[in-house]
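Narrative summary of target 7.
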Amino acid sequence: MGFNAAAYQFLSTDSVEKFTNANAKSSLRRQRQHEIMVALIQTQEHLELMDDQRSDYQSIANHDKDPARWIDKNRRILEKYQSLVRSAITLDALLESEQSTNQ
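Modeled conformation, tokenized:
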């Protein structure tokens, strides 16, 4: 008998249903957040990708680029991504609260 079968023996049907419902709800929420995130990315005119550090280390060795500039640029790009994620989570929470008040 596997772990899941043993666990289900000790759980009541009610708790299994609650766990299944919570898991499904969480999955739907992640999917909705993903869709919101994709929509937000599509609204961006220009969204940079982070620089590959390997090529910059080679440039640093040749004294072509300042490593502080590379780090600062990647930090700004990362902050932009974090801002988009926070916006997607906020919009999802607003949608969730609006749906719960309409029911």
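Residues 67-102 form the longest helix (36 residues).
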